[in-house]
Write a structure and sequence with these properties.
binds magnesium ion, Rossmann fold, three-stranded antiparallel sheet, alpha/beta, binds adenosine-5'-diphosphate, 31% helix
């Protein structure tokens, strides 16, 4: 099922519109004619089996992957201007013995000052303000390698929110997070989306969160198989075919 674009606009102040997106890597067709519309303020979950092309889709939207087709954004009052995209990558592994702290990580990303000189007062204030957005001020001096899955996601989220983006993209933010942490993280994303009026596009394998949090679920397996409300997609024959017959996890 493809999503129709009647007049090329979404009627909201900020959206992402993808039309006929195809990606080839070498001889392989990774994505074929994917159409998707993320409206302003929506949370859209992209699901599909491993190797379906979910991360490739996100990379194309981020401008990190060559593609054919159309990827267009419209931001409030600035139809032609590129939006700010916040990106939370799939959790990188940090060595627990590595001395890099959360403060150091922010300093590397946000400041030209060498991390070994310390944060500086003004920068520390800024980092604390960033961490406050994810209720993570207490994490500032922790070593990145010792953070739990949920804490690491919150730190990466805080980095992605500075400067505040128009759209937030997260690749598997729930993997490596325990069940309790998942609900905390999803509540936080929901709060952030409403507070800052962001659109959110995320991939996930955790379908139990979708009915509560997602406005729209998109199932892909190289092509778009079905999209709609969580209830419609999770109860669809396409979903059962992909995840039951191929042994996917529910
Ligand atoms: P998903 O995120 O849904 O698990 P990916 O988008 O990571 O899937 O990958 C989709 C397919 O594209 C996989 O078969 C993967 O091996 C292939 N692929 C992704 N990136 C590359 C690359 N840089 N070179 C070759 N193949 C790739
Ligand atoms: Mg992936």
């Amino acid at each position: 099922m493809n999503f129709p674009f009647h007049d090329g606009s979404c009627g909201h102040s900020c959206c992402l519109r993808v039309e006929n997106l195809s990606v080839r890597i070498g001889a392989d067709a990774i994505l074929k004619d994917v159409n998707l519309h993320v409206h302003c303020g929506e949370m859209v979950a992209l699901i599909g089996p491993n190797g379906a092309g979910k991360s490739t889709f996100l990379k194309a939207v981020l401008g990190q992957q060559e593609y054919s087709g159309v990827i267009a954004f419209s931001t409030p009052g600035q139809r032609s201007k590129k939006p700010r995209i916040g990106y939370v990558p799939q959790s990188p592994a940090f060595d627990p013995s590595d001395p890099v702290s959360v403060a150091d990580l922010f300093a590397c990303c946000m400041s030209k000052r060498p991390a070994f000189l310390g944060l500086g007062k003004a920068m520390e204030e800024t980092v604390l303000e960033c961490l406050e957005r994810v209720h993570g001020e207490d994490l500032i001096h922790k070593r990145v390698g010792t953070l739990s899955g949920g804490e690491l996601q919150r730190v990466l989220l805080a980095l992605a929110l500075e400067p505040l983006p128009n759209i937030l993209i997260l690749d598997e933010p729930l993997s490596g997070v325990d069940v309790e942490g998942m609900a905390v993280l999803m509540d936080m994303l929901d709060e952030i989306r409403k507070t800052y009026d962001l659109s959110i596009l995320m991939t996930t394998h955790d379908f139990s969160m979708l009915p509560r949090y997602a406005d729209q679920v998109v199932l892909i397996d190289h092509a778009l198989l079905i999209q709609g409300t969580p209830e419609a997609v999770l109860n669809s024959p396409e979903f059962h075919r992909v995840f039951h017959m191929k042994g996917g996890s529910l």
